[in-house]
Amino acid sequence: MDASDRPARPREQTFLRAGVLLVSVFAATALVEASLRIFRVFPHNPPWYVGDHEPASATPGQGAIDPVLGWRMRPHADVLDESPEFTVRYVCNAQGFRSPHDFGLEEGEEQIAFLGDSFTFGVGVEYEETFVALVERALAGPRCLDFGMAGFGIDQMWRTLRELALPLAPELVVLAFVQDDLERSASAFRYRNGWMLKPTYVLEGGELAPMTRENRPNAGWRWCEQQLYLADLGRKIERRLVRSFAVGYRWRLNRALFQALRDDCRAAGIPLVVVHIPERGQWRPVESYAREFAELEIPFLDLGAVASPDPARLYYAKDPHLTAAGHRALAEALLGFLRERALVHGELGPGRGDERGTGR
Fold first, then answer.
1. Partner of 94 at 20 to 30 A CA spacing, among 46, 61, 217, 327?
2. Least confident of 13-22, 57-66, 187-196, 263-272
3. Taking a C-beta distance cutoff of 8 angstroms, is the pair 85, 316 a contact?
4. Could you tell me which of 172, 107, 88 has the C-alpha nearest to residue 136?
5. Across 23-82, where does the E strand assignment appear?
6. CA angle 132, 342, 330 (to 5 degrees)
7. C-alpha 90: how far from its chain's center?
């Protein structure tokens, strides 16, 4: 019998099967990657790490690079925002935040500091329609300081608390976040007509440490994250896991940031309240968040747990932000939450524009 006619030995069969399996897996992976690239099922939005880009030294328009926070608006910026769904003017104070008054420490004046992203900033609505302005008007006492800034992650909110809010000795700190903010904490850059570097942290031994070139992921891992659409798919799965079970590295990182926010407020003797604003189409409670913030001993308001007869009207049809009706719903829920805990007193009176939910 010729050697080529002999049946394959068990070891040879094992190697053959393993080779076929590897080729099959590679082919299937390549097919999925190609399909995701061709059909663009979702946008490619990878995380970026310290050293991946040359940071912008300036921004066009009325934005400004901030060496501590990453960015903010220019002092006294005046921006007209026009879209198919709204036309709004954003006017900033001397500190580069959206407010009709400058931030300062005045003797005898009570203040509430609001931290957040574009939802707290109030994209799509006039300032007097934002939930921050509505709360201030309802309380008719404490001045509400809106430190919300478009694109901020939880890490930038923490830095804002430390550098700007706490020195003003507010009576209360309110942080409002959306799901995207949790993902922003994992990236060191945000592209806005140039790569803007932001404060970013990693966990080392369970403790927060500033991200450096040395503690970022290795080159192979970064290449996969930044080049493969399959990595985006993995991040979307992780996003679901974070929302459903509060698990994964990104949640552990953000949990540590929330804990740091809590500890800084406690050290200053200032109450901290955290608010979750659900995404459009996701108006329902997130039990994992409620559980985690209970463990952190942080008063937590999940807007998705608040009954609403028509959640869709609280958001624009295409733009992801809240309408005037959405801000009003948030203000009412927040005021009720704070009154229940004896943190504030006051009620929200009738407002304009509620019939259409747009304020215009």
1. 327
2. 13-22
3. yes
4. 172
5. 63-66, 70-73, 78-82
6. 30
7. 20
> Would you tell me how many other CB atoms lie within 10 Å of the CB of residue 245?
12
Cβ density class 14-27: b for 16+ within 10 Å, e for less: eeeeeeeeeeeeee
Which tens digits make up the pLDDT trace of 152-189? 999 999 999 999 999 999 999 999 999 999 999 999 99
- The one-character DSSP state at 51 is T
Given a contact cutoff of 8 angstroms between Cβ atoms, the answer to whether 86 and 316 are in contact is yes
Burial of 73 (0-12, 13-18, 19+ CB in 10 A): buried
The per-residue pLDDT of the chain, averaged, comes to 90
Beta bridge mates, 189: 197
DSSP run (H or E) holding 208: strand 207-210
pLDDT of residue 58 exceeding 90, the answer is no
Torsion of CA 264, 265, 268, 270, to 10 degrees: 180
One-character DSSP codes across 75-122? TT-EEEEE-SS-EEEEEB-TTSSB-SS-----TT--EEEEE-SHHHHT
Asked if pLDDT for residue 31 goes beyond 90, the answer is no
Look at residue 254 and tell me whether its pLDDT is greater than 60.
yes
CA-angle at 114, arms to 112 and 115, nearest 5°: 145
CB 303 within 8 A of CB 277: yes
CA distance 85 to 2: 79
> Is residue 225 helix, strand or coil?
helix
Alpha-carbon gap, residue 305 to 90, rounded angstroms? 30
Q: Confidence band (pLDDT; 50, 70, 90) for 270?
A: very high
Q: What is the model's pTM?
A: 0.89
Q: For residues 37 and 341, give the distance between their C-alpha atoms in angstroms, rounded to a whole number.
A: 50
> What's the pLDDT at 44?
83
Pair of tokens at residue 57: 């030294």
SS3 302: strand
